[in-house]
Amino acid sequence: MLELEIDGKALQVADGSTVIDAAHQAGVYIPHFCYHKKLSIAANCRMCLVQVEKAPKPLPACATPVTNGMKVFTHSDMAVKAQQGVMEFLLINHPLDCPICDQGGECQLQDLAVGYGGSRSRYQEEKRVVVNKNLGPLVSTDMTRCINCTRCVRFTQEIAGQMELGQAFRGDRAEIMPFIEKTVDSELSGNIIDLCPVGALTSKPFRFAARSWELARRQSVSPHDALGSNLIVQVKHDRVYRVLPFENEDINECWLSDKDRFSYEGLNSGERLTKPMLKQGGVWKEVEWNQALDYAAHALRDVANEHGGGAVGALVSPHATLEEMVLAGKLMRGLGSENIDFRLRRSDFSGQRAGVPWLGMRIAELNKLDRALVVGAFLRKDHPLIAQRLRQAAKRGTQVSVIHSADDDLLMPLAGKLIAAPSQLPERLAQVVKAAAELKGAAFDMKVAVSPEAKQIAASLVSGQNAAILLGNFAQQHAKAATLNWLAQQLAEILGCRFGFLGEAANSVGGYAAGAVPGANGLDAARMLAEPRQAYLVLGAEAELDCADGRQALAALKQAASVIVLSPFKSAAALEYADAILPIAPFTETSGTFVNAEGRVQSFQAVNRPLGETRPGWKVLRVLANVLKLDGFDHESSEDVREECLGGTGGALLDSLDNAISGVAVELAASAAGLERVAEVPIHFADPLVRRAESLQRTKDAAAPTARMNAATLAALRVAAGSPVKVSRGDAPSILVAALDAGLADNCVRIAAGHASTLNLGALTGALKVEPA
Amino acid sequence: MALIEAINPLLTAGWAKGDAGWGIKEYEARGGYQALKRILAEKMTQDQVIAEVKTSVLRGRGGAGFPTGLKWSFMPKGAPVKYVVCNTDEGEPGTFKDRDILRYDPHAVIEGMIIAGYAVGAALGYNYIHGEIFELYERFEQALAEARAAGYLGKNILGAGLDFDLFAHQGWGAYICGEESALLESIEGKKGQPRFKPPFPAQVGLFGKPTTINNTETFAAIPFVFRIGGSAYLDLGKPNNGGTKLFSVSGHVNKPGNYEVPMGTPFAKLLEMAGGMRGGRKLKAVIPGGSSAPVLSADIIMDCTLDYDSIAKAGSMLGSGAVIVMDETVCMVQALERLSWFYYEESCGQCTPCREGTGWLHKIIHRIEHGQGRPEDLDLLLELGGNIAGRTICALGDAAVLPVQGMLRHFRAEFEYHIEHKKCLVPREVQKAGSTFHTRMMAGAAC
Q1: 3 state SS for B331-400
Q2: Which one is predicted more confidently, B240 or A365?
């Protein structure tokens, strides 16, 4: 500990603290621009100059280490004069166009200019003008306002992992810019908007839409990935205008992925439903709620009465709230059906689970791992902020290894890597288990030949004190997901470490707790579609895009006698297969709960009133059950529903978390014949809301799917990258453009899912036929 | 070319042959690589080598005058990877001594760097040579090849078990890359911008490893320190200012060029060596240590001796030893406008005060020069200067302000005249008469 005095206040700080850290601890505010607690120290803005006893010159608080007995003066004449001098310099070339600047009202420069700037300028010369840059569809630039603090530059380098911005030129000609003709394409790019202390980088979708002080700030939770990022949703006149991070060091820190930040545009999509709709005589009509609910109740009841409860199935989006899932489950059971599932993109449901599968540790513990093995994950795109945490850990020396079917750049150093066709992933993981067992002298009697790469990964894992094995979405959607799970469990046992699931969606953990999984003799998501039902209740999902086999899902729904869709959105597909579409509230218009990957129960309130006649999903299900005259549906609030499911655990961790699996028929598959599909679900195709977020759909991450193959595979097919290919499974081929992806194994074709153009290709896994078109 | 009349020439001893004297044979013939051989033959320890340099009180020739031996002693002992870097990014207006060292005596630099590498325990060195002297970069590469062929560089040098290799790195002409940490950034392939210190290069230097970085002239002087001995070297100069130093004399003298004189030589002697004032005109002012040193008026500089302490006492600095001589035909406002333009142009843009302030200074001085000065401008210049100097990561901010302060200290009346009368105190015809450029243009010379 070091002792120092700041403005006469004595305090103790930890060794290695800087003066600005100490001031923060003492509750003393030191003005600053370039300093940011999550970024490296640049010390370039000079706004934080303070007086330090015995120092002849003012020193930058952000970069000056505390020494024992130091006396710091933040408001002395020397300090204030230095700060005022810097402020004057910052403003001479700043356009002072606050009245037309989106940052106005939430601008660090504006705020500090009030405290440290003069009321008029002594600078009467010409001001510098800087040409704006195109950073892509999300970030708008007014570079003349830039004060060159380089926070954005450091963010792209240090947090996002790839230097996409830099400072070019010298002196007052210095400009922040991307590489020539490039945009900022990181999945975390929106954070530079928050980091920019002036109006140089602002939100493009929000541009000129509202002033910051007109917006109400309401707290919420992201409905996308399983991290459960905490949000500030900014609202005016019952419309969401902007989403910002709500700082939570245990979850999203002070960051948001672009999906979390910009998906709100989907809330204002033209496809939002405003009234219930019924198809009568082949024609869609908007109706009143009582009519719609009567119809839905009768439709479900008729099928259940006529064909038995098992003829009804419920497909629940993993992005639905816990409360919606709870009530959907109860409703199905009330109808005598155990057919309910939220694990729509899974195909392997085998094995017995001991509890609710989860991350296996707290999110914040990821940073403390010294070894990590990530199996089957498009890590950066599926889990942008978990990737970021592992990146920071890797920089500090954590050894991260990867087993996957694609070799996308994770923008972090890797200790080992095994890339193989999807069918071979279990065999590769088994190699690592075998190698680890040999190193540890443990028993593992599966017959596999250990490759040097597997040995390298195992050696890395064995050498650590605090390792973890993380199974990604691709591993969970894998045809042999249970085998991968079992192998990870074996490896964790051998290493004496933890293993867990990165979590596909906002409620991938909550769905288990809510009972949105089939009970005894119930059908899982895959079987419900493979063995078509007479009636379906579809909650929040767009089955054709959100299921493991969209083509099969579409066929099953089309043949059903009745399909009741509860969704905020009208889609062309639903208009075809549904007979009732009930508008339910998206996450901003209902209260509810998401249980994130670490099992944290996060409840939230509605941030604005539902659009039109839209109603919260839990209320619709509750009333639907009432109309069906089912017992146990007298909840007065979403909290009642949550209490019924979880007891008093709101805000805490779920208590039934357990990743153990047993009864798995472990079998390492031989290579599949033909070309194997490697299917990712691109970040901006993953759920109905983000698919409607216009700006995100213009990013590079939302580019139309292509058929990606490595050079050898392309050559074997006699196809050139850039030329069209006919891709098919059975009949009805899709025409896609072939592209080179050097990171794929031989005989793999990587084609994204979640997009209408690849719907015909069916399942996420298995063999495809590719031929020149 | 004015290479002659040096007193006890050390650094310039080999310059007499001009371009014919730089090769390794010539260097060896005049005693080159003897210092290295002696150190290795006598098995001097690293500490002994550093002690000898300390005894010599050789002070850094790049401008700051930091004692070289002390700098070397800051290098951590145990670190497995260390570097020695030579700063030949000679960009200060008025300075051209390192250029001539590389032109006439590159092997002195190489030998000095090998000795430094041995002293600090570095096995690898770089010489960062600025972009405008590409032909000398190529010559240095040739000299490296010669040294390597002769067994002075590489593994097991002279069979003494010493490993040291040296590479040239070409800069691209940014003044800021002469700042040692910006130079390191530039070698690493990044934009040349100074790093915040501490940590200093001796702790975290090139590629994050401990690094000793010295000026070209400093390294070139090292062999002589060992050839004549540290205390003899010190005795050449005056106490606390060891050895001889090169002065780049430019401006209104008859024989501009590099002159080697012992530290402590009277300025008047140097002026005499440079052939005296051109056209017999009166000395008006001298910038004694490169463009960033505050100008001194004629009466002050004529009383100075050429060493770090005397010049500092007079209110300026010896800097890199670039002596810019100005006669009575010079308009000081115009001179300062040109100087301030340089610093505006070369500010790296990292720190706010320098990035924004250097341009503001230049704009004000430009206004004054062009008859649009305001009475409050001079105080504004000083106040802005106070807000720049000492407020930035590196010394470029100070360097931009010192000329302004110096000019206003000694020639304020000329600036006031400019503001009041919208024209120069020095009549236009007098200025034209003193301008080489103007004279040559009048004579019809191609320019």
Answers
A1: CHHHHHHHHHHHHHHHCCCCCHHHHHHHHHHHHHHHHHHCCCCCCCHHHHHHHHHHHHCCCCCCCHHHHH
A2: A365
Contact A85 B351 (CB under 8 A): no
* Per-residue pLDDT tens digits for A583-624: 999 999 999 999 999 999 999 999 999 999 999 999 999 999
Q: What is the mean pLDDT of chain A?
A: 96
Closest CA to A361 of A595, A599, A593: A599
Q: CA–CA separation, B284 vs A533, rounded Å?
A: 102
Number of continuous H segments (helices) and E segments (strands) in chain A: 24, 34
Q: Is the pTM of this model over 0.80?
A: yes
Query: In angstroms, what separates the C-alpha of A48 from chain B's closest C-alpha?
Result: 11
Q: Dig out the tokens for B419 from the structure.
A: 């503001």
Q: Which residues of B touch A121 (CB under 8 A)?
A: none
Helix, strand, coil share of chain B (percent; to 5): 50, 15, 35
Residue A89 and residue B358: Cβ atoms within 8 Å?
no
Q: Is A171–B196 a contact, with Cβ atoms under 8 angstroms apart?
A: no
A171 to B346: CB separation less than 8 angstroms, yes or no: yes
List for chain A the helix, strand, coil content (%; round to 5): 35, 20, 45
Residue B114 tokens read as: 């090998």
Structure tokens at A145: 């306002």
User: Alpha-carbon distance A209 to B90, whole Å?
Assistant: 53
Q: Cα(first)–Cα(last) distance of chain B, in Å?
A: 20
Check whether A649 has a pLDDT greater than 70.
no
Contact list in A for residue B348 (CB cut-off 8 A) is: 170-171, 174
Q: What is the DSSP letter of A731?
A: S
pLDDT band with cut points at 50, 70 and 90 for residue B444? low
A727 touching B, CB under 8 A? no
Structure tokens given for A633: 């549906």
ipTM value, please give it: 0.93
* Per-residue pLDDT tens over the stretch B164-191: 999 999 999 899 999 999 999 999 999 9
Using an 8 Å CB-CB cutoff, list chain B residues near A56.
Answer: 390
| Cβ pairs A/B, distance under 8 A | 98
